[in-house]
Predict the structure of Muconolactone Delta-isomerase.
Amino acid sequence: MLYHIRMDVNLPPDLDPDERADLLAREKEYSQKLQREGKWPHLWRIAGEYANFSVLDVADHDELHALLSGLPLFPHMDIEVTPLAAHPSKIEG
Ligand SMILES: O=C(O)CC1=CCC(=O)O1
């Protein structure tokens, strides 16, 4: 199943710089593992915002929830999920 996700990152301004760097490094490692596994086929920066649009390809809502709640930045993000269904006008390819 495909899901369109918007993630807005809200890191505390007073976060310790080492803690911030560690969080971001772990987030990158986590998301790149899922990208390599084909579960995170799109990851786009929203221009001008500390936010991204992503498309995740997972089995069901439960896997989606597990994946999202495992994000190192999860406690610092607002996440909006839109489930995607097939469009009848879409051509193959
Ligand atoms: O910077 C972001 O948009 C948050 C994020 C999600 C996956 C990743 O590597 O960073």
Observations:
- The CA atoms of residues 18 and 24 lie 10 Å apart.
- The radius of gyration is 15 Å.
- The beta strands are 2-9, 42-45, 51-57, 77-84.
